[in-house]
Amino acid sequence: MNLLASTLSCRRVLLSLLGGSLLITAGLPDALTRGMAQTPAPKPAAPAPKPATPARPSTPQATRSIGDQLKQVPVFTLTDGSGQRSITVTVPAKDGKPAQEIGLFFFSPQDAQAALQQVRSQNPQVGKEAQVRTVGLDKAYDLAKAARTQKNTIGVSLQAPADDVKAAVQLLQASGQKVTEFNGIPLFFATGGPQENPLTMELTDPKGQKQQAVPFFFSKKDLDDVLGDMRKQDPKAAAGAKVQVSSLERIIDLLESSKDPQLQKIVLMPAKTAVEFAVRQEKEASTSSQRPAGAATPAARPASPAPKPTPAPQR
Q: With a threshold of 0.85, does the pTM exceed it?
Protein backbone atom coordinates (compact mmCIF):
# COMPACT_ATOMS: atom_id res chain seq x y z
CA MET A 1 0.00 0.00 0.00
CA ASN A 2 1.40 3.44 -0.88
CA LEU A 3 2.12 6.33 1.45
CA LEU A 4 -1.11 8.11 0.58
CA ALA A 5 -3.16 5.22 1.92
CA SER A 6 -0.97 5.15 5.02
CA THR A 7 -1.24 8.85 5.78
CA LEU A 8 -4.96 8.96 5.02
CA SER A 9 -5.26 6.18 7.57
CA CYS A 10 -3.43 8.37 10.07
CA ARG A 11 -5.76 11.26 9.33
CA ARG A 12 -8.82 9.08 9.90
CA VAL A 13 -7.40 8.05 13.27
CA LEU A 14 -6.84 11.69 14.22
CA LEU A 15 -10.39 12.58 13.23
CA SER A 16 -11.66 9.59 15.19
CA LEU A 17 -9.80 10.77 18.26
CA LEU A 18 -11.32 14.20 18.01
CA GLY A 19 -14.74 12.59 18.08
CA GLY A 20 -13.97 9.88 20.61
CA SER A 21 -14.76 9.53 24.27
CA LEU A 22 -12.22 10.28 26.98
CA LEU A 23 -11.87 7.50 29.54
CA ILE A 24 -9.56 6.76 32.47
CA THR A 25 -7.98 3.36 32.08
CA ALA A 26 -7.86 1.04 35.05
CA GLY A 27 -5.57 -1.95 35.35
CA LEU A 28 -2.98 -1.05 32.71
CA PRO A 29 0.46 -2.50 33.51
CA ASP A 30 2.84 -0.46 35.63
CA ALA A 31 5.36 -0.52 32.80
CA LEU A 32 3.11 1.79 30.82
CA THR A 33 3.35 4.61 33.33
CA ARG A 34 6.44 3.87 35.41
CA GLY A 35 9.10 6.45 34.63
CA MET A 36 7.24 7.88 31.66
CA ALA A 37 8.12 11.41 32.70
CA GLN A 38 11.74 10.58 33.33
CA THR A 39 14.72 11.06 31.06
CA PRO A 40 14.28 8.65 28.15
CA ALA A 41 16.19 5.40 28.04
CA PRO A 42 18.84 4.93 25.31
CA LYS A 43 17.66 3.81 21.90
CA PRO A 44 17.28 0.03 21.60
CA ALA A 45 20.31 -1.46 19.85
CA ALA A 46 19.17 -5.04 19.18
CA PRO A 47 18.76 -5.68 15.47
CA ALA A 48 15.39 -6.78 14.18
CA PRO A 49 14.29 -8.10 10.81
CA LYS A 50 12.80 -5.56 8.44
CA PRO A 51 9.02 -5.57 8.93
CA ALA A 52 6.75 -6.70 6.15
CA THR A 53 4.11 -4.46 4.64
CA PRO A 54 0.69 -5.69 5.77
CA ALA A 55 -2.55 -3.97 4.91
CA ARG A 56 -2.98 -0.95 7.15
CA PRO A 57 -6.19 -0.66 9.17
CA SER A 58 -7.93 2.69 9.39
CA THR A 59 -8.37 2.49 13.15
CA PRO A 60 -6.14 1.15 15.95
CA GLN A 61 -5.92 -2.63 16.22
CA ALA A 62 -4.78 -4.42 19.36
CA THR A 63 -2.70 -6.89 17.36
CA ARG A 64 -0.74 -4.40 15.26
CA SER A 65 3.03 -4.67 15.51
CA ILE A 66 5.29 -1.73 16.27
CA GLY A 67 6.62 -2.02 12.73
CA ASP A 68 3.12 -1.56 11.35
CA GLN A 69 2.60 1.50 13.53
CA LEU A 70 5.88 3.08 12.48
CA LYS A 71 4.86 2.70 8.83
CA GLN A 72 1.99 5.08 9.45
CA VAL A 73 4.19 7.89 10.80
CA PRO A 74 5.54 10.06 7.96
CA VAL A 75 9.05 11.50 8.24
CA PHE A 76 10.81 13.73 5.76
CA THR A 77 14.31 13.50 4.34
CA LEU A 78 16.34 15.23 1.62
CA THR A 79 17.19 13.31 -1.52
CA ASP A 80 18.65 13.92 -4.95
CA GLY A 81 16.46 14.42 -7.99
CA SER A 82 15.88 10.70 -8.47
CA GLY A 83 14.56 10.35 -4.93
CA GLN A 84 16.72 7.27 -4.45
CA ARG A 85 19.73 8.72 -2.62
CA SER A 86 19.77 10.77 0.57
CA ILE A 87 21.66 14.02 0.88
CA THR A 88 23.75 13.63 4.00
CA VAL A 89 25.60 15.95 6.36
CA THR A 90 29.26 15.39 7.25
CA VAL A 91 29.98 15.37 10.98
CA PRO A 92 33.68 16.26 11.42
CA ALA A 93 36.05 13.99 13.34
CA LYS A 94 36.11 14.78 17.06
CA ASP A 95 37.57 13.26 20.23
CA GLY A 96 39.21 10.43 18.34
CA LYS A 97 36.03 9.55 16.44
CA PRO A 98 36.23 9.58 12.64
CA ALA A 99 34.12 11.85 10.47
CA GLN A 100 30.75 10.37 9.58
CA GLU A 101 28.01 10.96 7.06
CA ILE A 102 24.59 11.46 8.67
CA GLY A 103 21.21 11.19 6.99
CA LEU A 104 18.60 13.50 8.48
CA PHE A 105 14.95 12.51 8.95
CA PHE A 106 12.60 15.26 10.10
CA PHE A 107 9.25 14.82 11.83
CA SER A 108 8.28 18.33 10.72
CA PRO A 109 7.92 18.98 6.97
CA GLN A 110 8.64 22.64 7.67
CA ASP A 111 12.00 21.71 9.22
CA ALA A 112 12.79 19.56 6.18
CA GLN A 113 11.95 22.41 3.84
CA ALA A 114 14.15 24.78 5.86
CA ALA A 115 17.02 22.27 5.58
CA LEU A 116 16.40 22.06 1.83
CA GLN A 117 16.71 25.83 1.49
CA GLN A 118 19.95 25.72 3.48
CA VAL A 119 21.39 23.06 1.16
CA ARG A 120 20.43 25.10 -1.88
CA SER A 121 22.05 28.19 -0.39
CA GLN A 122 25.29 26.56 0.76
CA ASN A 123 25.74 24.07 -2.07
CA PRO A 124 23.83 25.14 -5.20
CA GLN A 125 25.24 22.29 -7.28
CA VAL A 126 23.73 19.69 -4.96
CA GLY A 127 20.72 21.78 -3.99
CA LYS A 128 19.44 22.45 -7.51
CA GLU A 129 18.06 18.90 -7.75
CA ALA A 130 17.48 18.28 -4.05
CA GLN A 131 13.97 17.63 -2.80
CA VAL A 132 11.99 16.78 0.31
CA ARG A 133 10.82 13.19 0.21
CA THR A 134 8.35 11.44 2.52
CA VAL A 135 9.05 7.96 3.88
CA GLY A 136 7.62 5.88 6.70
CA LEU A 137 9.29 6.07 10.10
CA ASP A 138 9.86 2.31 9.94
CA LYS A 139 12.38 2.85 7.13
CA ALA A 140 14.32 5.47 9.07
CA TYR A 141 14.22 3.30 12.18
CA ASP A 142 15.59 0.29 10.30
CA LEU A 143 18.43 2.41 8.91
CA ALA A 144 19.20 3.73 12.40
CA LYS A 145 19.37 0.22 13.84
CA ALA A 146 21.65 -0.90 11.02
CA ALA A 147 23.93 2.07 11.65
CA ARG A 148 24.33 1.05 15.30
CA THR A 149 25.18 -2.56 14.54
CA GLN A 150 27.17 -2.37 11.30
CA LYS A 151 30.46 -0.69 10.46
CA ASN A 152 30.97 1.77 7.61
CA THR A 153 27.30 2.65 7.35
CA ILE A 154 25.68 6.04 7.05
CA GLY A 155 24.44 7.35 10.39
CA VAL A 156 20.85 8.41 10.95
CA SER A 157 19.61 11.38 12.94
CA LEU A 158 15.90 11.75 13.74
CA GLN A 159 15.02 15.43 14.13
CA ALA A 160 12.09 16.34 16.38
CA PRO A 161 10.53 19.81 16.07
CA ALA A 162 12.24 22.33 18.36
CA ASP A 163 8.92 23.44 19.89
CA ASP A 164 8.06 19.89 20.96
CA VAL A 165 11.54 19.29 22.39
CA LYS A 166 11.22 22.53 24.37
CA ALA A 167 7.76 21.49 25.60
CA ALA A 168 9.14 18.10 26.68
CA VAL A 169 11.91 19.73 28.71
CA GLN A 170 9.40 22.07 30.35
CA LEU A 171 7.16 19.15 31.32
CA LEU A 172 10.09 17.31 32.89
CA GLN A 173 11.16 20.44 34.76
CA ALA A 174 7.58 20.98 35.98
CA SER A 175 7.65 17.45 37.41
CA GLY A 176 10.70 18.35 39.49
CA GLN A 177 13.45 17.01 37.29
CA LYS A 178 16.58 19.08 36.82
CA VAL A 179 17.07 18.69 33.08
CA THR A 180 18.08 21.10 30.36
CA GLU A 181 17.68 18.87 27.30
CA PHE A 182 15.60 15.96 26.07
CA ASN A 183 17.49 13.00 24.69
CA GLY A 184 15.17 11.39 22.20
CA ILE A 185 11.99 11.98 20.24
CA PRO A 186 9.27 13.22 22.62
CA LEU A 187 5.86 11.55 22.71
CA PHE A 188 3.07 13.25 24.63
CA PHE A 189 0.22 11.49 26.41
CA ALA A 190 -2.43 12.39 28.95
CA THR A 191 -3.13 10.98 32.40
CA GLY A 192 -6.00 11.44 34.83
CA GLY A 193 -7.48 10.25 38.09
CA PRO A 194 -5.87 9.92 41.54
CA GLN A 195 -3.27 7.45 40.26
CA GLU A 196 -2.63 9.39 37.04
CA ASN A 197 -3.48 6.46 34.81
CA PRO A 198 -3.16 7.01 31.05
CA LEU A 199 -6.30 8.39 29.45
CA THR A 200 -7.72 6.34 26.62
CA MET A 201 -9.84 7.14 23.64
CA GLU A 202 -12.81 4.96 22.75
CA LEU A 203 -12.84 4.49 19.00
CA THR A 204 -15.32 2.87 16.66
CA ASP A 205 -13.94 0.82 13.77
CA PRO A 206 -15.63 0.53 10.34
CA LYS A 207 -17.53 -2.55 11.55
CA GLY A 208 -19.08 -0.56 14.39
CA GLN A 209 -17.03 -2.29 17.10
CA LYS A 210 -15.72 -0.11 19.90
CA GLN A 211 -12.21 -0.42 21.25
CA GLN A 212 -9.96 1.53 23.56
CA ALA A 213 -6.60 3.00 22.58
CA VAL A 214 -3.93 4.88 24.50
CA PRO A 215 -2.72 7.58 22.10
CA PHE A 216 0.83 8.93 22.19
CA PHE A 217 1.19 12.14 20.19
CA PHE A 218 4.26 13.35 18.33
CA SER A 219 2.81 16.86 18.57
CA LYS A 220 1.94 18.40 21.94
CA LYS A 221 -0.33 20.87 20.15
CA ASP A 222 -2.39 18.01 18.71
CA LEU A 223 -2.84 16.52 22.20
CA ASP A 224 -3.72 19.94 23.65
CA ASP A 225 -6.33 20.40 20.92
CA VAL A 226 -7.86 16.97 21.63
CA LEU A 227 -8.02 17.67 25.37
CA GLY A 228 -9.52 21.10 24.69
CA ASP A 229 -12.30 19.57 22.62
CA MET A 230 -12.89 16.87 25.23
CA ARG A 231 -13.19 19.43 28.01
CA LYS A 232 -15.92 21.14 26.01
CA GLN A 233 -17.77 17.88 25.32
CA ASP A 234 -17.38 16.26 28.73
CA PRO A 235 -15.83 18.57 31.35
CA LYS A 236 -16.27 16.04 34.16
CA ALA A 237 -14.46 13.22 32.36
CA ALA A 238 -11.65 15.50 31.26
CA ALA A 239 -11.21 17.20 34.63
CA GLY A 240 -7.73 16.76 36.01
CA ALA A 241 -6.26 15.55 32.74
CA LYS A 242 -2.52 16.12 32.74
CA VAL A 243 -0.11 16.12 29.82
CA GLN A 244 3.04 14.07 30.32
CA VAL A 245 5.95 13.09 28.12
CA SER A 246 7.78 9.90 27.29
CA SER A 247 9.97 9.12 24.30
CA LEU A 248 9.62 7.19 21.08
CA GLU A 249 12.65 5.13 22.06
CA ARG A 250 11.14 4.10 25.38
CA ILE A 251 7.78 3.18 23.85
CA ILE A 252 9.44 1.10 21.15
CA ASP A 253 11.56 -0.61 23.79
CA LEU A 254 8.44 -1.44 25.83
CA LEU A 255 6.53 -2.76 22.83
CA GLU A 256 9.45 -4.87 21.63
CA SER A 257 10.44 -6.29 25.02
CA SER A 258 7.09 -6.86 26.73
CA LYS A 259 4.45 -9.44 25.83
CA ASP A 260 1.78 -7.72 27.92
CA PRO A 261 -1.26 -7.42 25.62
CA GLN A 262 -2.36 -4.25 27.41
CA LEU A 263 0.60 -2.42 25.90
CA GLN A 264 -0.85 -3.11 22.46
CA LYS A 265 -3.43 -0.42 23.21
CA ILE A 266 -0.73 2.16 22.56
CA VAL A 267 -1.29 4.03 19.31
CA LEU A 268 1.32 6.39 17.84
CA MET A 269 -0.31 9.57 16.54
CA PRO A 270 1.71 11.46 13.89
CA ALA A 271 1.50 15.23 13.85
CA LYS A 272 -1.50 16.51 11.94
CA THR A 273 0.69 18.91 9.93
CA ALA A 274 2.97 16.04 8.89
CA VAL A 275 0.04 13.91 7.75
CA GLU A 276 -1.49 16.77 5.77
CA PHE A 277 1.83 17.51 4.05
CA ALA A 278 2.38 13.86 3.13
CA VAL A 279 -1.16 13.54 1.74
CA ARG A 280 -0.79 16.75 -0.27
CA GLN A 281 2.59 15.66 -1.64
CA GLU A 282 1.20 12.29 -2.70
CA LYS A 283 -1.77 13.93 -4.41
CA GLU A 284 0.55 16.30 -6.29
CA ALA A 285 2.65 13.34 -7.37
CA SER A 286 -0.44 11.50 -8.58
CA THR A 287 -1.53 14.55 -10.56
CA SER A 288 1.95 14.86 -12.04
CA SER A 289 1.95 11.27 -13.23
CA GLN A 290 -1.30 11.90 -15.10
CA ARG A 291 -0.09 15.04 -16.90
CA PRO A 292 0.50 14.86 -20.65
CA ALA A 293 4.05 14.84 -21.94
CA GLY A 294 5.66 18.26 -21.86
CA ALA A 295 3.41 19.63 -19.12
CA ALA A 296 4.95 21.40 -16.13
CA THR A 297 6.08 19.07 -13.41
CA PRO A 298 5.22 19.92 -9.76
CA ALA A 299 7.10 18.74 -6.66
CA ALA A 300 8.80 15.38 -6.94
CA ARG A 301 6.72 12.43 -5.84
CA PRO A 302 7.42 10.64 -2.58
CA ALA A 303 7.99 6.90 -2.46
CA SER A 304 7.78 4.39 0.34
CA PRO A 305 11.16 2.59 0.12
CA ALA A 306 13.94 4.22 2.11
CA PRO A 307 16.46 6.05 -0.08
CA LYS A 308 20.04 4.84 -0.30
CA PRO A 309 22.32 7.35 1.45
CA THR A 310 24.98 9.18 -0.52
CA PRO A 311 27.18 11.90 0.96
CA ALA A 312 27.02 15.45 -0.21
CA PRO A 313 30.27 17.41 -0.52
CA GLN A 314 31.55 18.35 2.91
CA ARG A 315 30.73 21.86 3.98
A: no
